[in-house]
Design a protein that fits this description.
The chain has helices at about 15-20, 40-60, 165-180, 185-190, 200-205, 215-225, and strands spanning about 25-30, 35, 40, 75-85, 100-110, 115-120, 125-140, 150, 190-195, 235-240, 250-255, 260-270, 275-280. The chain is of the alpha+beta class. Strand 11 and strand 12 (about 260-270) form a beta hairpin. The longest helix is centred in the first third of the chain and has 19 residues, at about 40-60. The termini are far apart. Mean pLDDT is about 90; it is low at about 285-290.
Length: about 290
């Protein structure tokens, strides 16, 4: 037996209307959204990153998310920090045919940055909160991901600037990464390491960049390779400082020793630059670290 799907709209929708439709708060969960142990973290971060960019474009009064520098070059609202806090069982509680509700908001921050906050629930049960921080970047040399640098982008003239603890931490962590990078050889001597070569066809996004949403996958694979017995993760924060070229490798590095509740890793590219730092907190959110 076959079922005909009615043609619901004869006129193609505009990009702006599709952006607004993509921000609908309800999603019926199925196989694309799920992993064997609940909601897929990789799918979730991709979906929320997409919503972050669309909300930003709408707030900037754009008809699509084609961001450009003042001189016309392609620009990207690059994620420079992410934070995922799991609540009451978190992602593991999601099941097929559940209705996931995503309520999102976006605000402007100092230094030409942007923060989006996403609250997720199934029925009346909250499962997690995610915050994403972005800033506009562009390549200074065409096709070279090592040359990404911040660029200005016009924002609404009338806007209020908000505050974000995660954004403040991102600035601090960039300085910390520089210190850790200078101590690279000494730190690597006693560190656990796992090396991976991301695939351009799977791990990079449409802009040709190693996708922010895939970083946590490499961290998880490294922890599995090290056979570390860790309690369930309550919170994961990742701070991003750079990117790689297609064909390059990354090394996930865990300096020893490691606290039982907080696991801090560096993600290092071939030239020794730390392109990300991540912390996984197994205790309740709010635990101090570093």
């Amino acid at each position: 037996m076959t079922m005909a799907v009615p043609h619901l709209q004869a006129i193609a929708p505009t990009p702006r209307s599709l952006m607004e439709r993509a921000l609908a708060p309800y999603i019926l969960l199925g196989m694309p959204h799920l992993a064997p142990f609940g909601l897929s973290e990789t799918w979730l971060m991709k979906e929320l990153g997409h919503r972050h960019w669309l909300m930003l474009a709408i707030r900037l009064g754009m008809d699509n998310a084609d961001f450009r520098t003042p001189d016309g070059r392609e620009a990207y609202a690059s994620i420079c920090a992410s934070s995922l806090v799991q609540i009451d069982g978190g992602l593991a509680t999601a099941r097929p045919n559940d209705i996931l509700e995503i309520r999102s908001s976006i605000s402007f921050l100092p230094k030409n940055r942007h923060s989006s906050l996403h609250r997720l629930q199934i029925g009346d049960r909250r499962i997690c909160e995610v915050e994403l921080i972005s800033t506009f970047v562009a390549r200074q040399t065409e096709a070279d991901n090592h040359t990404l640098a911040r660029v200005e982008h016009p924002a609404p003239l009338m806007r209020q600037l908000s505050a974000s603890k995660l954004a403040d931490e991102a600035s601090s962590m960039r300085r910390t990464a520089a210190v850790r990078q200078n101590l690279g050889s000494e730190r690597a001597r006693n560190a656990l390491e796992a090396r991976f070569t991301p695939w351009p066809s799977r791990d990079f996004n449409g802009a040709g960049l190693l996708y922010f949403a895939n970083f946590q996958g490499f961290i998880t694979r490294a922890i599995s390779k090290w056979k570390l017995d860790r309690p369930p993760v309550k919170r994961q924060d990742i701070f991003f400082f750079g990117n790689i070229r297609a064909g390059e490798s990354i090394t996930v590095r865990l300096p020893a020793p490691s606290d039982n509740n907080v696991l801090v890793t560096d993600i290092v590219r071939d030239d020794g630059k730390i392109i990300a730092m991540a912390r996984r907190i197994s205790a309740e959110p709010g635990l101090e670290w570093m």
